[in-house]
Write a structure and sequence with these properties.
Blueprint (H helix, E strand, L loop, with lengths): L6 E2 L3 H23 L4 H28 L9 E2 L11 H10 L7 H30 L1 H4 L4 H22 L4 H28 L7 E3 L1 H26 L22 H4 L17 H29 L6 H23 L4 H23 L1 E3 L16
């Protein structure tokens, strides 16, 4: 039987062309709507459109993972050496016939390739952002560092996307890929906020007490830890290790194996010795995420209480409350209703929205005793 090569770059030109075609629509819309606007405004709108599509990409990535479509095309960047499942129909049919419920089916191949198409389009938009920022850097001193860092980051994210396939959904790689997508959202949101501050007549940074700024940073850090733990639950398929709430397996402290559960460098479904991972290890993965969630919820509501005194940040506080409640409801639904797909994707979406909202809050505020400088995002250094 012929072995399928893990990397086949034959269809890469067609995939890149498809990404350009998909990106032309958003680019044309931004140009038509903002052709008379100053460059900072055009860059801000293009960044927001890219942010929106990246958010969609994160959600579709979760959908790809949760439908077990990550290996729908077992090579990269194409599908059995073709730019679409249409050209790979005979290979997909043979794989599906050999294993009807296996990782390769026509539906899973399409899901995986649509995810790659969308990722390619986002990459093209980020490349345009970096290019325009470089061209405009002398006219308005618009920083090209943020878009350049974002371009480098999306290339790394693409590499991790390739590794998720070629390393057969290795949990550590898939979790890092998820975190990379969240970091991409944060980078784009920071840029959009910076362009808004730099625009003529734009709002000045919101002054905050030093302790409130510190609280914002601490909760932001806790959020990233919680997202990493949630990604570890999802990539190890440990969601159903606890099917009751608020206890787990009828106990406040169930049997758990932390050593094997949090052994990071291992194959999917195996421990480091290559044996099937034991259920107590999956329980440890799930329950740590759940216990951490209580800490993060408490910290979020404490932060909301502090932000409420700042009138300009009350909309942010409302968003944080709403998203915290959404995360609680969608996370609970995942457990008690056996991981319904909509709730699971929504849970990832809630985490992504929290990243966007909190990134905006951090980059639109300054400590009160610092000089307020609306051009801070237009220097040549990243903030």
């Amino acid at each position: 039987m012929e072995t399928q090569a893990l990397y086949d770059f034959a269809p890469i030109a067609r995939l890149m062309l498809l990404g350009v075609v998909m990106a032309l629509g958003p680019l044309a819309w931004v140009w038509v709507r903002n052709r008379h606007a100053p460059p900072a405004q055009r860059l801000r709108m293009l960044t927001l459109v890219t942010l929106f599509l990246t958010f969609d990409l994160v959600l579709f990535g979760a959908f790809t993972r949760l439908t077990d479509s990550g290996l729908g095309c077992p090579d990269w960047p194409g599908c059995y050496g073709s730019a679409s499942p249409v050209g790979a129909s005979s290979a997909i049919a043979a794989a599906q016939e050999a294993m009807p419920t296996g990782p390769v089916t026509f539906s899973k191949a399409w899901i995986e390739m649509i995810h790659r198409y969308l990722a390619t389009a986002v990459g093209v938009l980020i490349l345009v952002l970096a290019s325009v920022s470089w061209v405009e850097r002398r006219k308005l001193s618009v920083s090209y560092v943020w878009p350049l860092v974002t371009l480098i980051w999306v290339c790394l994210q693409g590499a991790f996307g390739a590794l998720t396939v070629t390393m057969k959904l290795f949990p550590a790689i898939v979790t890092l890929h998820l975190l990379g997508g969240m970091a991409l959202l944060a980078l784009l949101r920071a840029q959009a906020t910076g362009y808004a501050l730099a625009a003529p007549g734009g709002p000045p940074p919101i002054p905050l007490h030093a302790n409130t700024r510190l609280a914002l940073g601490l909760v932001y850090g806790l959020l990233w830890i919680q997202i990493a733990l949630g990604g570890w639950v999802s990539t190890n398929y440990a969601v159903l290790a606890c099917s009751d709430f608020p206890m787990c397996q009828g106990s406040w402290w169930p049997d758990m194996d932390f050593q094997h559960g949090f052994s990071l460098w291992r194959e999917l479904g195996q421990n480091r010795a290559g044996e099937a991972i034991a259920f107590p290890a999956l329980t440890a993965i799930h329950y740590v995420h759940r216990l951490s969630a209580w800490v993060v919820f408490t910290a979020l509501f404490w932060l909301v209480w502090r932000l409420w005194s700042v009138v300009a940040l009350r909309p942010t506080a409302r968003w944080l409350v709403g998203l915290a409640l959404w995360q609680f409801a969608s996370g609970l639904t995942n457990v008690v209703l056996d991981w319904p797909l909509l709730a699971a994707v929504g849970h990832t979406g809630g985490a992504a929205a929290l990243v966007v909202v909190m990134t905006s809050a951090i980059f639109s505020t300054r400590t009160a005793h610092e000089p307020v400088d609306a051009t801070a995002f237009t220097t040549s250094r990243p903030i």
